[in-house]
Amino acid sequence: MNAWILALVQTTLLLLLAPLLSGWVKWVKCKLQSRRGPVPWQPYRDLAKLMRKEMVLAEHASPIFRATPYIVLSVTALASSVVPAFAIGLPTAAIADVIVMVGFFALARFFLSLAGMDIGTAFGGMGASREVTISSLAEPAMLLSIFTLSMTFDSTNLDSMVHFTLTQPFHIYPSFIFSGLSLLLIATAECGRIPIDNPATHLELTMMHEALILEYSGRHLALLELASMLKMLIFGVLITNLFVPWGIALAPGVASLAIGTLSMLVKLMLIGVVLAVSESVLAKMRLFRAPEFLSLAFVLSLLGMLSHVILEVH
Amino acid sequence: MYLHLAHLGVLLALLSAVAPLPVRHVNVGVRLAFTLLGLSGLTSAYAGGVGMLSGASLHVVLPIGLPWLHSHQHLDPLAGLFLLLVGGVSAVVSLYGPSYVISSGTDSASARALAIFTGLFVAGMYLVILAADAFSFMVAWELMSVASYFLVAHDHAQKKNTDAAFLYLLMAQAGGLFILLGFGVLAGIGDGFTFSAMQSASLAPHWEHIAFGLAFIGFGMKAGIVPLHVWLPQAHPAAPSHISALMSGVMLKVAVYGFIRFCYDLVGTLHWQWGMIVLLVGCASALLGVLYALMQHDLKQLLAYSSIENIGIIFMGLGLSFLFASSGVPTLAALGLLAALYHCINHALFKSLLFLGAGAVIQQSGRHDLNHMGGLLRLMPITGGCFLVGCISISALPPFNGFVSEWLIFQTALQGAELESGVIKSLVAVAAAALALTGALVAACFVKVFGIAFLGKARTEDMLRSHEVSAGMKWSQALLALGCLLLGIFPTFIVKSMQTIPIALLGSGLDSMGANTWLRLTPISIRASSYGAPMVLFGICIAWLGAYILLHPRRRKTKVRFSPAWDCGFGPLGPRTQYTDSSFSQPIRRIFRPVWHIDERVEPPTPEARGGRYILHIGDWAWDKLYVPLGRVIQRSAKIASKIQGGNIRIYLAYSFFTIIVMLWIVT
């Protein structure tokens, strides 16, 4: 029972931390570009304001349009309960393994794309078309690099994967380097960050994720923004804990949980800095350059898989 | 006992073919035929279900057929599953059929023809599954093929349909020939046409390879693997929609049944080379199937291409199962087989659902081109809702059923470390990535279908005239949608009850299945992987409830204003400013360009089309590069062969005379 409460605490904590991470990234990015920038907790204010605001719905929006924000947020929240964040051994880990988690994101994207097409504006269709194209290239690369890891760990369960690294003697596998790089590239694409998509743009020709949610306002928009922040946080937690799991709590206990939470925060801050640096030095790509970027990610995953099969299996 | 019940099902199906003949009133006749067909479906499904669960193999010899070869019939777990599938889907289709056929306004003669051939077609499928000797199998197989030929050619006023039907018949016959030869190899060595004689035959490896090759081509042609698929996207759209549902949903599965029966049961030894061939062909079918589906704008043709993709996924599962069986890991071979069978059930459910939905849309609007549709969800909410369930299920998204079978295939592929060769290990992993790509592209494809047909604004006036279909058509779709949900949420029960099949065929089930509860599916071990589908649904509901409760106090305070969609200040948006089917798939078309034979051009403005005209034609490479040259070769050789055609009866008599002489000489 305690473990279930802990799982609930984890989900709530990640949900509450998500705006802070995107605020942090924005803040670091502004500092790097010598701008003043909003304070890191600005996203909380934005969300609170959106919640209070009047909502404008398009006249012929179907129920799918109105249900999508709730579906997207619930599915993303469920995904956040599955990742090992500050402790392992949570009962929620057995609900879904990493393949199911990829499935959750695909489900959220499915509804988001449908909602984009629901109103019947060109922007929504454009966003949906681009979103499904990019994701159909990113998803196989992501799964291939995850498969490499899970063949090493002999498990697709995230909990067992993290547990394996922590309990085995420390060892750097060549395949992990390739898979890790590939996962970083894919995470930028999946979260709609530069160089694939720019969350700050509202320029017709370049937007993808923003085009999908263009017709949303008020609390619907707040839910969708929160979901996309949470998704970025999940990817951050996932990548750091798969490759650098040290610090995560192995057994429940006040001290180890505190260390786990603290180490998670430090890791997230660091990966936020990495993201901010990369977003400052890279420029957004043209849409049709994105497949090249994603095939680089795929080739890296493939190299990871091959080096696993050739070098690490005996 | 249950075998007799299954035979009762066959009889009822045959009765449904002839019963409406003496009935004068066409509507009564149609209803009678479909009622009998529905009863036969229920009977067979019950018999099949019990046959699968019991795990026993029943056998009976019917005094029909040649004097030295009576018809052998059997019902074992494998046959039981497929009987359940065919029976279940035909029962649902019979619920849909009456109002569909009656409101399509068919005249009495063609409604009778439809009833006759539907009954024969379904009876043929039952008999293929029940057959326990090669002779009964082939007779039933041909009954199924020929009856479905007449169904494809049902709407024969259009030349397109008769062409499709002819191509279908041609390829069905060619495929039948390969299967016949495959049985010939086994029967020749095993000394007998019964399946039990074939099982006991000890084949030399090269004969096994030959038999496998013949069966793979023969059954593959019917199942629609690439490049033997060309009949499928032409024949399925030509048939009436409820027949398309039967053909795509179940007939392709009967071919898969034949292949499984032939390889696992009759040949018995599975070689790793077969596993590689089946896996790679499966990958190719899955990827090409979905890429071609993405480019279609005819709703039913798109669904037909997507069937090719799903057959590819099924063959991938079978290929993995072959590989593990040949490496001596029967539990994983069982897992691959179960994953493939699970996908058979899933595809039967969601593809029938989608075809029935497409039938409802086409019947209401009279349009089958996606570019003419739009906004149907508001006019047909129940059909739209069920179609959405079908789209989610086919896109392999949790918590619906398509996800479970693909997840099981992923789990099988990830156990590749158990295989011996390094090359095969990495190929298996790449095949898993190909499956991931397929899954993502399917999601893209069905976002397109649902988004363009059911959402947005109506692109033509015809859409606005559509309204919700009648009760029978609604119920049948709702039943299938419910099936998709239940099979997605309770996979543990389904996998457990299918365990009898790998136990019968491979002598091993899944070890870990005994330990787990209904909450979690753990195919390998709890440490390795688990999927708690009921908890996923529960979790989504809880999270939704949480968001709702949190927002509800605000709901009353903040206003909701309805206004037209934002038009950038350029005036009202019409339906023509929406994304169309070809614009939606344009990025994918550009990225995977070499996959299709694309003919894309812009014609200069003319008085009729002042803005010019954009023409896009997507051709199938397999057709253009393989079948057209083959057809030319056949035509040329036929012309040469026709020289012996003298047109004089005496010459023909001489031919027959010499043929008989030569034959007698050979025989003696």
Pattern of helices and strands of chain A:
HHEHHHHHHHHH
Helix/strand class of chain B = mainly alpha
Q: Give the largest chain-chain interface (CB within 8 Å).
A: A-B, 85 and 87 residues
| Rg measurement of chain A, Å | 19 Å
Spatial separation of the terminal alpha carbons of chain A = 42 Å
**Domain tally of chain B:** 4
Uncertain regions spanning at least 5 consecutive residues of chain A: none
Q: Give the overall form of chain B.
A: globular
C-alpha-based Rg of chain B, rounded: 26 Å
Number of domains of chain A: 1
- What is the typical, i.e. mean, pLDDT of chain A? 90
Give the strand line-up of the largest sheet of chain B.
1-2
Helix/strand-derived category of chain A reads mainly alpha
Fraction of helical residues of chain A: over 70%
Q: What is the percentage of strand-forming residues of chain A?
A: under 5%
> Strand count, sense and closure of the main sheet of chain B?
2 strands, antiparallel
Q: How is the biggest beta sheet of chain A arranged? A: none
Number of helices of chain B: 26
Question: Which keywords apply here?
Answer:
heterodimer, A: mainly alpha, 71% helix, B: 668 residues, mainly alpha, two-stranded antiparallel ribbon, 26 helices
Report on the structure:
The complex is a heterodimer of chains A (314) and B (668). With 314 residues, chain A is mainly alpha-helical. Chain A has one domain. Chain A contains eleven helices and one strand. In chain A, helix 3 packs parallel to helix 9 and helix 5 packs antiparallel against helix 7. Chain A is globular. By secondary structure, chain B is mainly alpha-helical. Chain B has four domains: 226 residues, no CATH class; 283 residues, no CATH class; 35 residues, no CATH class; 46 residues. In chain B, the strands form two sheets. Chain B has a two-stranded antiparallel ribbon with strand order 1-2. In chain B, strands 4-5 form a two-stranded antiparallel ribbon. In chain B, a hairpin with a 2-residue loop joins strand 1 and strand 2.
